[in-house]
Amino acid sequence: MSSRQIMTPDEVRRATTRISHEIVEKQAGTEGLVLVGIQRRGVPLARRIAASIAEHEGVDVPVGALDITFYRDDLSLVAQQPIVKGTDIPFDLNDATVVLVDDVLYTGRTIRAAMDALVDFGRPRAIRLAVLVDRGHRELPIRADHVGKNVPTSREELVRVHLAETDGEDSVDIERRAPTPAGGPR
Amino acid sequence: MADRARSTAAAIPGGLGQLVAELEISRAWLVDPAAGREGPGEIVVRDGVLEAITWLEGDEAAGITPAGVIVAPGFIDLHAHFREPGFEDAETVATGSAAAAHGGFTTVCLMPNTSPPIDNAGTLGAVRAAAAASGSPIAILVYGTVSAGRAGEALAALGELADAGAAGFSDDGAPVRSAEVMRNALLYAGMFGLPVIDHPEDPGLTVGAEAHEGLVATILGLKGWPSAAEEAAVARDIAILADVLLSEPRARLHLTHLSVAGSIELVRRARLAGLPVTCDVTPHHMALSDEWLAGARGFAWESAAGATDPWRGGSATARAYDTSLKVNPPLRRPADAAACLAGLLDGTVDAIATDHAPHTAVGKDVEFGLAANGISGIETALGLALEAVVAGRLPLIRAIELLTTGPARVLGARLGRPVGLAEGGPADLVVFDAADRWRIDEASLRSRGKNSPLLGRDLPGRVLATIAAGRLAWADPELGAQE
Amino acid sequence: MGRPDVSLSVDHLAPAAASLPGDGAPGQALVPALERPPLAAPWPHRHLLDVDVLSWPEIELVMQTTDAMGEVLRRPIPRVPALRGRSVTILFYEASTRTRVSFEVAAKNLSADVVNIAAQSSSVSKGESLVDTIRTVEALGADMLVMRHAVSGAPHLAAEYFSGSVLNGGDGWHAHPSQALLDLYTLRQHLPGGSLRGRKIAIVGDILHSRVARSNIWTLTAAGADLWLCGPATLLRGFESWAAAWRTPAVPGAPAPRGFHVTSDISAALRDADVVMALRIQRERQAGGLLPSMREYAARFGITRERLAAASPEVLVMHPGPMNEGVEIAPDVAVGPGSLITEQVTNGVAVRMAVLYLLAGATETRRG
Q1: Tens digit of pLDDT for each residue in C87-139?
Q2: pLDDT confidence of C362, banded at 50, 70, 90?
Q3: Distance, in angstroms, between C4 CA and closest chain B CA?
Q4: Whether pLDDT at A118 is above 50
Q5: CB within 8 A of A183, min separation 6: which ones?
Q6: What pLDDT digit, counting tens, does each position of B76-92 carry?
Q7: Residue of A nearest to C36 (CA)
Q8: Which residues of C touch A85 (CB under 8 A)?
Q9: Average pLDDT for residues B408-437, to the nearest whole number?
Q10: CA closest to C61 among chain A residues
Q11: Which domains does chain B possess?
């Protein structure tokens, strides 16, 4: 299994900063804006974006964490990955503009599940999506509003995002692994 | 089937039920407890008569061991339930006889807890007629009830039953609750020299009981069946017997399916004091234990004495609450099974009796507490006894004694024939291969009752042929019987 | 189905064993950490019939999943689609409103389709056998079966005939796994550090007939609590032998893994107790000759303010419900400070959601 880095720590930092500016630009300010990070790595990313916004706008945008474990459409994963990390949305979503934040956008199923979950919390005015990496291969009609880096990949590759808060360092790597047998789990 | 068996036992001329025209078994291990003898030998049966027995010695005996084909006298079961009349879904005299022959038994004593119960000469006659009509050469003896209707209050027509051929009297399925009725029964039956066979249980202590009162029942949440319920009844019966003997010296007591150490000890002491009390133990109480309810599947003698716990050490491999294990008296602790085995060894226990208790799926395929009590065991008795022999817990000749001369002594004159491998008499014997294991499953069991906890297991001692009163009662299908 | 080697029933909690994550070791906080190590193997249990087959990591997983379910219950819409498209049949042969409704709410919160059968009203009461009922339930499309029955071992029989998951909602005197799990969960939220290790817990009442007591014995001793069972001698029969068996190490020379105390001395049981769990005394016990009268039980064993004075000042009080106030527990104790009784009910829904979720995952895997 070989691995190569596609984003250095500086690149991660710049991408996050740019995204934070784009979010504010699209919203024409910070009014009504909330960030919801998708567990796990979407959460520290969302916090970094909020910190950046606070730095250049002087406003603290609310940040929440969303665990989509209970919204997956594939229960067979429960046995293998049953650990839940926790949802924490301590503010009212009604009429808010929610920016979902995740590390990698791939098939789009995670985002679909996240939207299902958000709707149970209230009725946002709008939902937007910010991701650090978009690796293509969408299976649902989902697109990100803000992308850190577009990375074309093949299905045999694995995109690994490392963040200091969870993994000790910032980096985005691509791993090439052995081709999965036909019909294998993704 | 082992080639050895094929070479030793030829196909048997004459079909099932027919006189055995000719059978020669060479190079087998003969066991004759009546003569107190076992060893290499040969037998010849001609026209239903055991024509010749030859004990081999020296070079001729070389290579013949008990781990092969064995010839023994036909087994005698002191305690079986063939459910006819009244419960023919579970078994009939005909199907029970076939099962008995498959198990190597040539004589079976039937308990009278049928519907109607056998408390009068008419019903007893009907059962004997059913035996005759079955065409099976197995000798069927029948016990009459102790009390009228098995209600435990008044004596049944004991004299009439004795005249009609009853081999003894029992309210089995239930104890004789009233001490006074028990005393009167022992006195009255003593006049005929017939035993009263008691199922020792103090019913006040066993209301709703489901499993032996011990660790397993506590953890599984099952209502306990205390040892004291059996011991108290045994002590009562022995005390009453001692009294009764003063008036009627011919009185005899037989205690059936003892299961706890305390009961064995009480009988041991009574025997030392010279009381005419006999007793039997079932194969399942000797070989299994209450740990099986928790899902353990080892024989009782494999558990360390005392501190056993099927929840530790991963010995539970099967599911818990298997109703094929629900029996009265219940399976007890391994230490109790060990005490039963010790009693079988030292002569305190006279016989292994199967308490063959077939049930339909309707009776057993229910919640544990609601399941009928009983194990279908007449076909697996030999196998379990041989497992004890193989494990070094029971000498072979003692095991055969417990299935032949022991029960014969209890029955006394009612058996009506000598027991043993004696030249000149009608052949009454069983031929089995101790080294050949057979799979117990619904297809291989001949009984209608498939309620055996041994389903899916192999046991040693495949029965090759059973000959009762000179007639072929069972031949292993692979062995074949020539018409 | 055999028991795995690392179930609660094996002595893996002996001091010599490696300390497992989240076993309540001193100083370890309970708040679910982001980095709790996952189970070594996938959740293997298709059924939950007894609590003694669960390993400690599996119990930890149930606790964490319950935390998440608790969060779901606090949302404006307390619902997740995790069991959408699954059919859960609740089959109760014993009258029990609270537990039956608790399971129904739990299943519905997971978006499952729920069929609730109260045995008295169905053909069951006309004598349909359990096996036939299970076959019918399966034919009607049930994926999961939650069962309560008056006879010990009934869910084990159901599991033989049902191709989905069976969750034991209480069988006879034998087991009540979801109750033991919610009791454990509740205690961990209130005891310092979320740890039960060394805490004195007294269960008082009709131990003999209690499935709640039996299941709690497994979980509370596995959690390292100092467990005391207390009641009249007639209602403690058999438990001293159990405690004695556990005091004997499975392997000679190994330290005895854990034990519990059995006593009819209420003062000894309550002295310095951190937790008192009262069990319901049923009138039938008096009729069955096991107790002279309910009054005598209340006088000698009832949990009152006076009796609790001997316990720890912050003693927690629990009861699985329903309560006979004035018999096993005084009314003011039931609602007083330290009473966790209502929380047990709330946590019950969260725990049952967690268990249904985990079992559904195991069945899904089997379906492939």
Answers
A1: 999 999 988 888 999 999 999 999 999 999 877 655 555 678 899 999 999 99
A2: confident
A3: 7
A4: yes
A5: none
A6: 999 999 999 999 999 99
A7: A83
A8: 32, 34
A9: 95
A10: A83
A11: 3-71+425-479 (2.30.40.10), 74-415 (3.20.20.140)
Catalytic residue (one of B77, B290, B355, B476): B355
Residue of C nearest to B220 (CA): C174
**Partner C contacted by B366 (CB < 8 A):** yes
d(CA A153, CA B369): 62
Which residue in chain C has the smallest CA separation from A165?
Answer: C34
Choose, out of B219, B322, B370, the residue to mutate when testing the contact with C (most C CBs < 10 Å). Answer: B219
Please classify residue C299 by burial: count the beta carbons closer than 10 Å to its beta carbon, then call 0-12 exposed, 13-18 middle and 19+ buried: exposed
- Provide the percentage of residues in chain B whose pLDDT is more than 90: 89
Q: Do chains B and C touch (3 or more CB pairs under 8 A)?
A: yes
CB C30 within 8 A of CB C73: no
Query: CB–CB of C216/C46 below 8 Å?
Result: no
End-to-end Cα distance, chain C: 20
Determine which helix (DSSP H) or strand (DSSP E) holds A105, and give its type and residue range: strand A97-105
pLDDT at residue A138 is higher than 60: yes
Q: Taking the model in full, what pTM does it have?
A: 0.87
Q: Which chain A residues are Cβ-neighbours of C39 within 8 angstroms?
A: 82-83
Q: What is the 3-class SS of A60-100, one letter each residue?
A: CCCEEEECCHHHCCCCHHHHHCCCCCCCECCCCCCCCEEEE
Give the tokens for residue B346: 């030292």
Question: Which chain C residues touch B314 with a CB distance below 8 Å?
Answer: 2-3, 5, 10
pLDDT, position C250: 62
Res. C25: pLDDT tops 70: no
Q: How far is CA C289 from its chain centroid?
A: 28
Q: Are B70 and B431 in contact (CB under 8 A)?
A: yes
CA distance C94 to C114: 18
Residue at token pair 């495949």? B462
| CB contact set of C35 (below 8 Å; sequence gap of 6+) | none
C132 Cβ neighbours under 8 A, 6+ residues apart: none
The tokens for B244 are: 């009764």
Q: What is the pLDDT of residues A93-115, one digit of tens each?
A: 999 999 999 999 999 999 999 99
Strands B438-439 and B458-459: antiparallel
Contact C153 B224 (CB under 8 A): no
Angle at B339 between CA B334 and CA B341, to 5 degrees: 95
Around Cβ C267, how many Cβ atoms within 10 Å?
10
- Residue B355 annotated in active site: yes
The reported pLDDT for the residue numbered C126 is 65
Rg (CA), chain C: 20
User: What is the C-alpha separation between B56 and C364, in angstroms, rounded?
Assistant: 67
**Residue C337 per-residue DSSP state:** T
ipTM of the complex: 0.87
Q: What domains can you pick out in chain C, each with its CATH number?
A: 192-340 (3.40.50.1370)
Chains that touch B (3 or more CB pairs under 8 A): C
Contact between C63 and C90 under an 8 Å Cβ cutoff? The reply is no
What pLDDT sits at residue B343?
98
